[in-house]
Amino acid sequence: MGSNWKRFIIIVIVVLASVALWGARPGPAQAQNAPFPYKEVTDAAGIQGPRVGNEKITGQAWGDYDRDGWIDLYLTDFGADKKPAANRLYRNNGDGSFSLSPLSSQVALPTAQSGGAVWADYDNDGFLDLYVVNWGANVLYRNDAGQGFTDVTAAAGVGDTANGKSASWGDYDNDGSLDLYVANWSCTPRCGRPVEGDMDVLYHNNGDGTFTDVHSLLGRQTAGAGFIASFIDFDNDNDLDIYLVNDEFVHAVGNALWRNDGAGCGGWCFTDVSAEAGVDQKVMGMGLAVGDYDNDLDLDFYFSNVGPSTLLQNQGDGTYTDVAEAAGVRMPEAIGWGTIFLDYDNDGRLDLYMSQMVETDGGVGLNPLFHNNGDGTFTNLLEASGASDPGKSIGVSAADYDADGYLDIIIGDYDEGYKLFRNTLGDAETGGGWFALRLDGAAGVNRDAIGAKVFVTDSDGHTQMQQLNNGTGLGGNSGLELHFGLGAARLAAVRVVWPDGAAQSFDDLRANTRYTLTYGGEPAVFSGRAAFHWPAWVATVLPWAVGALGLAALVVVAAVLRRRGRRPHGRRGLRPALAAMGLIVLAGAAALLWTTRDTLAARLGGGSSDGRLTLLLNKSGVTQLDFGPTPDPALVALGEALFFDKLLSGNRDISCATCHHPDFASADGLPLSFGTGGHGLGPVRAIGVDRELVPRNATELFDRGSPEWTTMFWDGRVNLSAVYGLSTPVGNGLPPLLETALEAQAMFPVTSRDEMRGQFGDYDAGRQLNEIAAVSDMRPKLIWARLMKRLLAVPEYVELFRAAYPDVPIEQLGFEHAAKAIAAYEASAFTFTDSPWDRYLAGDRAALSDQAKRGAILFYGEAGCAACHSGNLLTDQQFHNVGVPQLGPGKLSDERLDLGRFLETGRAEDRYAFRTPPLRNVTLTAPYMHNGAYADLRAAVRHHLNPPGSLQVYDAATLPVSFQETVRTEPEVAADILKTLDVRLATPAALTDAQLADLMTFLAALTSPTAVDLSGLVPASVPSGLPVQD
After folding, report:
1. CA distance linking residue 7 with residue 917, whole number of Å
2. Taking residues 1002-1011, what's their average pLDDT?
């Protein structure tokens, strides 16, 4: 082989090896590396999560309406007063995503107040029909062979008009047609407080498309404010009994269990065995899970409550025993709603998930995923489940929507809408084997085979049993495919007992396979397309394999060229090879140019500081800040009065200005604020008797009028999205007048007990009982209404409101009008445009000193500050854990920790993450961080250079004495913080003292001279006559 060929092959090897190494480089963490079984994928899956209404019922129903093998999803929306909302039908695209079905409008019910919904084939035509439960007339849609839906409610006679919560299907008389139970709650509050709940309905399917109400067969428990009922065979006699969960809030009759005793009794015999079976608990029952969690081949119950939940273990003799405490699933402080059994990790044991609205003390409730330990006990995974969602969760149902063999979950939140959680254990290859079966009834068995039991035995001799039903969870139905986990064992035998008692057994089925079985037939491998996930090792091996194949191909091509490439005069023709070599060299040069593009651009732009900085700013997209429109003067005047008036606080002792005072750069100069009950202003302010610190630092208010602001509060609980609009703690309960994040934010300090509202039993500054504090935390609208009553009792406020809102009658004013005015004042008073940085961006190159320019180049370049402090506001408005020491009372945590953004999202990666603070006027706004841990700006900057080291040597003595004892110095706390540290801060950064000085000079250039002294903003008096200054 000639020297040219050798060089050619060497170059090819080097290039391909480089490409392969690049392809195999570590990238962002993928799902297979995630430690949590679930990951929220709502947006990624194409699901529009938010809903308009916030009635305490959601509907999330899984069903393959078009029989294409992929389970589809129907979501309800209750709507709100004067704001109706449409339900939505999503079609599964078969690739992990959903699209709004072209048939969605046919089942939208845009003017109905919809709660639960369930799929079932009531007419046995092979296509799932849809029943929607409303407050008002319920609706039954017949599925016309997957091509459309027809409302057959009137003809079928199932348009019950009570306040329905859920519905369940089951063939109680085994006539081959599914019957229907509708659980109705109560007409309250529309009808006051009735003696009984709304009457439930049991519809008998007549087999001709019509139904007859036969609830009289059951008795008075059907007026017990029902939430959910399920058709189940609790006594293993092969007919369907009924278990109903009632809410004692309205009519304390207790839960009910009706044993199915067959024909007779004027139609059919049901015997109430609630008391003798030990299942008549009088609780505020809501959700119901049914399943054989202990694998003893009979069905157990778990139901939620306002307070302790109940796990009823079937004793096999017709009785049940509550074992929730021993099992570790009592949840005494939870306000629980929907709940389901599912084997999330495919280990052959049913685990337990519950939607939790809040805790009984008003704290954030994390939805528990209880892992079944196999010894009768469960372990709550808490946030480690990935599906703990700290929202106010109501409904839940499960299905394997991506057909990967692992059950996924969708929940419905009271205030935040729907969230889809995908099970990622299949990606990580950490779950067990599985077996799935779809049943198809025939010859007198209902088409869905609801009521059938399937027994699965594995190679270790363990047998599981599941009964097919659709009456669990709350407000919807899980998939009608039965799913069994196998752990590490093999599948040995499957036995199906159909609703009519006929049985079929099979011992030749495969694990990790989906089957369909028609009554009396043979199992068939399900023909739907199965989702495919690359094994974890493929991502590493694939680039090398491709590189090796490419190299082999090039060697072959080179050999062919060498043999055939001869010139006419007999010399070997190397031109093709040389051309290939040339292309490779050019490609390498292009890659080199690309990787050094920033350096080259800086050189081409000139070696001056201005040239380099201009390039960096262009790359970062930095321009002059849009400071927003000038607010209406009348609105500003009203907002000024409100901002400084203590009348807005429950105890009439604190105003917005107390913690956002002009004398302290629109903050208070304290690490953490002293809220209502405190005395004084700024750093000398003292905490009140028996009061807690406000958990987080009072943020400054500079430039909040800019429309570029989308995220308020350290945890982002007020957020403005182009897709979803305003998201706030009251969900869809926010008045529509409010348009910006700043306006929405102004609604909430007055609702905080520690900040402004006060505690139960407080007396205000005039020794009158605090009527604002007496309102329940769950009723923010009443808080706002009472504040407006206070304000409008002051004649001067009436005139100010009239001037600001001349077209709004006084009786139609709400606190949202006050909030809008406060936001207008803040935008007017605290917006400044004259910092050296603003002047530099406007084109004045002399506005920054050379040292400040060097600092800016560091900030946007080597130091990496702009990775988070980006944009024109110098904040990405995202959330990061920068390893800040914990101090203060904590927030919603028994451990007195503040977990930050995690309290809003429930995602473990958000633990200790807080919104990036803006840096405009940063030199004026000490102390720094979300809890004021650093009094000195230089110390805060140094912390960012090495958070792990800084956390270990943090000196609490730099804090005011009253805060020092609140610092958490335990090594385990520091270790927990560092678990989720932002990866960009994990490796210590090195800045010389000179570079740090440059950086500090740049930060000083962000200060507006006119913002230094704001004492002139403080008015002499306010309309209420209360003192302006403490």
Report:
1. 56
2. 96
d(CA 399, CA 480): 8
One-character DSSP codes across 240-289: -EEEEEEBTTT-----EEEEEEES-GGG-EEEE-HHHHT----SB---EE
Q: CA 402 to CA 533: how far, in whole Å?
A: 10
- pLDDT(535) > 60: no
| Residue 604 pLDDT | 40
Confidence class of residue 4 from pLDDT cuts 50, 70 and 90? low
How do strand 256-262 and strand 269-272 relate by DSSP bridges? antiparallel
CA–CA distance, 890 with 755 (Å, rounded to integer): 14
pTM of the full predicted structure? 0.63
Residue 256: name the closest of 271, 240, 237 by CA: 271
Closest CA to 923 of 936, 942, 939: 936
Q: pLDDT-derived band of residue 583, with 50, 70 and 90 as boundaries?
A: low
Identify the sign of the CA torsion 27, 33, 34, 40.
Answer: positive
Could you give the 3-state DSSP secondary structure of residue 689? coil
Amino acid present at 872: N
Residue 978 CA to residue 817 CA, distance in Å, equals 43
Dist. CA 106–CA 91, nearest whole Å? 14
| Helix, strand, coil fractions of the chain, as percent rounded to 5 | 30, 20, 50
Higher pLDDT, 35 or 821: 821
What is the full DSSP assignment across 76-93? Answer: ----BTTB----EEEEE-
DSSP string, 91-159: EE-SSS-EEE-TTGGGG--TTS-EEEEEEE-TT-SSS-EEEEEEBS--EEEEE-TTS-EEE-HHHHT--
Structure confidence by residue, pLDDT tens digits, 66-121: 999 999 999 998 776 656 689 999 999 999 999 999 999 999 999 888 889 999 99
Q: Residues near 273 by Cβ (< 8 Å), separated by ≥ 6?
A: 257, 258, 259, 318
15 three-state secondary structure: helix
Instruction: With residue 966 as reference, give the H or E element that holds it.
Output: none
Q: Which of 2-16, 510-524, 713-727 has the lowest mean pLDDT?
A: 2-16
615: tokens are 């390039």
* Lookup result for tokens 């004259």: 834
CB atoms within 10 A of CB 912: 25
Structure tokens at 612: 């380099």
pLDDT tens string 839-871: 999 999 999 999 999 999 999 998 999 999 999
- How far the first Cα of the chain sits from its last, in Å, is 93
List C-alpha distances in Å: 348 to 230, 344, 641, 953. Answer: 23, 9, 65, 48
DSSP code, position 754: I
d(CA 726, CA 740): 8
The structure tokens listed for 122 are 């009531």
Whether 447 and 124 have beta carbons less than 8 Å apart is answered as yes
Distance, in Å, from the CA atom of 782 to the CA atom of 788, rounded to the nearest integer, reads 10
- CB of 309 within 8 A of CB of 474? no
Spatial distance between the Cα atoms of 939 and 924, rounded to a whole number of angstroms: 15
Among positive and negative, which fits the CA dihedral 380, 382, 385, 389?
positive
- 536 φ, ψ (degrees, to nearest 5): -60, -35
Looking at residue 250, its pLDDT comes to: 72
- Tell me which residue has tokens 């700290």: 390
pLDDT at 357: 82
Q: List the structure tokens of 771.
A: 């009527």
Kindly report the length of the chain: 1030
In the chain, the amino acid numbered 836 is P
Token pair of 385, please? 């489940």
Mean pLDDT of the chain: 87
- CB distance 295 to 347 below 8 Å: no
SS3 category, 491: strand
Of the listed ranges 158-172, 211-225, 263-277, the least confidently predicted one is 211-225
Nearest to 676 by CA among 663, 661, 658, 696: 658
